[in-house]
Input
Amino acid sequence: MVRNIVAIKRVLFDMLGHFNNDDGWAMASHLALSALLALFPFLIFATTLAGFLGAKAFADTAVHLVFDTWPEQIAEPIARQVVEVLTVQRGDLLTYGGLLAGYFASNGIEAVRASLNRAYRVTETRGIIYRRLQSLLFVLIATIGFMVISVFLVFAPLLARLLEAKVAWIGPYMGTITLWRFIIASAVIVLGLIAVHIWLPDGKRKFVTILPGIVFTLIGWLVGSTAFATYIDHFSSYVTTYAGLASIMIALVFLYIISAIFILGGELNAAISRYRDARARVGT
Output
């Protein structure tokens, strides 16, 4: 028991110490701003590509997948504006506008890579062309994934009715389309966390070594977003302070909180690995 407490203490001190000493707060700011700057180009690029391929209902689904897991107080004002932007007809997918949107979206992936490289205490050895192509591939895979989910959600009510007609007892467990959107959005987040922890930082990691950080991140996001939403509801003066900029400022602070928690998840994985390596060296 005492040994476990000592181990937890060492891991936590290592995690927090490295986060603080290696500019974790500044990296969280960088990641939050990069995420916000990448979000809109990604949605524009993805919606334009979906429209080019015939998936006309993609915009609404994409917005739900991105914002359904955000607290309503934070997501609702931004999501409303995003839907208005995405429903504007565009024909520039294969022009510089579409290419630039994809490029700026990939900058968000690069910010995640830089944050995780610091958290895992590794030096990047891969070439810039490889890294940029990998980031663009992440954007493309995310777009295609959102499109597949969009098609699934269009047919989900029909499939649910057919299933209920064949298996009557399953009806109460089918839920609503909103519930399914939330479940799918949560699954996308988990799969996204696994993908970025395994493939974005330099070096190789096994799933078991990244699991603690992913669990920490998910729990931290739930607690942090709930606490911030409560603060917005009861104590915040953002609206009176920032007027028309309030929604953007709220989004930035929210992204800053979840970025710090995300980086701490990587720091936790690195701290656990360092502790295990130290134990292995002394043979205990």
